[in-house]
């Protein structure tokens, strides 16, 4: 497992580069926070979603001095929320050229006719036509990605799957989704970049994490060193997390002015979070072994809620740690800051973060709080479910896989 404190620099990607990746004005200087000058989504989140000029359609002097496109990318399932946002991000990416977008229902139609923000000069193609690319993103429903991934891997592409088809072991997948058509590929490298950076860098197949697990595991990873005995996750998500296909439960009249819990005990992100919390080390502290026998995983309660917002996830997480007495607030804050030192997209806050702070960005903002009265640690974690919870993290993983600066095209 990678140490989140070590940022990734520029490497040579031998799959499509004959020389080291060129240093440009977009690369951060030594010791500087890796922030690019032309897009600041933390200040102007709308910029990230605006189809401005890109390397594929250079029209400004600033674009002309940027690095040329060096890798080709294809999106399978490009008409949904995550596929459309991925296309926007790739159009802004200085080192990648989007060459294919598939949609089985819109084949042959100009992409910009249905996605006006995606002006790539492309037509939607069939899934089978996505070939000959350096990297492929799979934005298909669960159960459909496995077959496509096998074909693309055989074609020599690096594959990033945004469905759940490669996140679990074969046994867990069968329990929650049904039999897997290619169990020999399970599990893929789990693409929670800050926690598995080295594995992602060496992978041909990356399983992009789910949105709820991303917010939860980033909030809880630093506390694993204290031992996790009991974890309760109260999670709230905007409606875009349910996907683009309309349903009765996501109709405006159903969600407006309401807040409802759903998926108690049945939500498919539960096994993903549980797997991420499991540890090879016994979770033993002064309280003794974690309940459940082997001490390797805490008791976990996960309650997701649907809120009347377009996008965003906020999770309030209650933790009973295996260290007694409960560590002090300064110590817990230091644990988080040390763990994520140098991590571009993780911000440890001194007050509860707001969803508007992360809207349109790839950042996760985390606030840990020690409740001395109850002996619990409370952690609040917020992300944009379509960015850090899906498309943004997929681009972050792509950058690591291709040996590019991890922040490129995202800040």
Helicity range of the residues? Answer: 10-25%
For the largest sheet, list the strands in their spatial order: 3-2-1-4-5-7-6
Helix-strand pattern, N to C? HHEHEHEEHEHEHEHEHEHEEHEEEH
| Total individual domains | 2
CATH architecture of the largest domain: 3-Layer(aba) Sandwich
Percent of residues in beta strands? 15-25%
Q: In CATH's first tier, which class of the largest domain applies?
A: Alpha Beta
* Structure classification: alpha/beta
Number of helices: 12
Radius of gyration: 21 Å
Name the CATH superfamily assignment of the largest domain: NAD(P)-binding Rossmann-like Domain
CATH topology of the largest domain: Rossmann fold
Q: Point out poorly predicted stretches.
A: 5-67, 281-295
Distance between the termini: 25 Å
Please describe the biggest sheet, giving its number of strands, its sense, and whether it closes into a barrel: 7 strands, parallel
Beta strand count: 14
Shape, please? globular
Look at the structure and give the mean pLDDT: 82
Structure write-up:
- 23% of the residues lie in helices and 18% in strands.
- It is an alpha/beta fold and 411 residues long.
- The chain has two domains: 178 residues, 3-Layer(aba) Sandwich (Rossmann fold), CATH 3.40.50; 173 residues, Dihydrodipicolinate Reductase, domain 2, CATH 3.30.360.10.
- Strands 3-2-1-4-5-7-6 form a seven-stranded parallel β-sheet, sandwiched between helices.
- α4 links the parallel β2 and β3.
- α8 runs parallel beside α10.
- The longest helix has 16 residues.
């Amino acid at each position: 497992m990678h140490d989140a404190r070590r940022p990734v620099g520029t490497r040579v990607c031998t799959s499509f580069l004959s020389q080291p990746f060129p240093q440009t004005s977009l690369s951060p200087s030594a010791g500087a926070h890796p922030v690019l000058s032309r897009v600041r989504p933390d200040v102007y989140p709308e910029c990230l979603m605006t189809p401005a000029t890109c390397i594929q359609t250079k029209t400004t002097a600033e674009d002309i001095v940027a690095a040329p496109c060096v890798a080709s990318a294809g999106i399978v399932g490009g008409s949904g929320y995550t596929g459309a946002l991925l296309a926007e991000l790739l159009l802004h990416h200085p080192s990648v050229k989007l060459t294919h977008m598939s949609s089985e229902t819109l084949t042959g139609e100009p992409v910009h006719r249905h996605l006006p923000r995606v002006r790539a000069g492309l037509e939607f193609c069939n899934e089978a036509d996505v070939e000959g690319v350096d990297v492929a993103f799979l934005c298909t429903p669960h159960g459909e990605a496995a077959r496509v991934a096998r074909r693309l891997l055989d074609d020599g592409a690096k594959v990033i799957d945004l469905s759940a088809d490669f996140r679990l072991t074969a046994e867990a997948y069968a329990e929650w989704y049904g039999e897997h058509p290619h169990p020999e590929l399970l599990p893929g490298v789990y693409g929670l970049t800050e926690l598995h950076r080295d594995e992602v860098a060496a992978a041909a197949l990356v399983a992009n994490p789910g949105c709820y697990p991303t917010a939860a595991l980033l909030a809880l990873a630093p506390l694993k060193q204290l031992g996790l005995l009991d974890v309760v996750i109260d999670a709230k998500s905007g409606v875009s997390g349910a996907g683009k296909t309309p349903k009765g439960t996501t109709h405006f009249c159903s969600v407006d002015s309401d807040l409802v819990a759903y998926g108690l005990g049945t939500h498919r992100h539960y096994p993903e979070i549980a797997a991420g919390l499991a540890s090879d080390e016994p979770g033993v502290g002064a309280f003794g072994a974690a309940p459940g026998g082997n001490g390797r995983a805490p008791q976990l309660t996960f309650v997701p809620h649907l809120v009347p917002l377009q996008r965003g996830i906020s999770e309030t997480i209650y933790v009973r740690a295996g260290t007694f007495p409960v560590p002090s607030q300064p110590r817990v804050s230091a644990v988080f800051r040390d763990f994520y030192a140098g991590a571009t997209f993780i911000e440890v806050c001194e007050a509860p973060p707001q969803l508007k702070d992360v809207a349109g960005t790839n950042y996760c903002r985390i606030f840990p709080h020690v409740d001395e009265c109850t002996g619990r640690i409370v952690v609040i974690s917020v992300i944009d479910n379509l960015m850090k919870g899906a498309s943004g993290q997929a681009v972050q993983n792509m950058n690591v896989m291709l040996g590019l600066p991890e922040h490129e095209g995202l800040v």
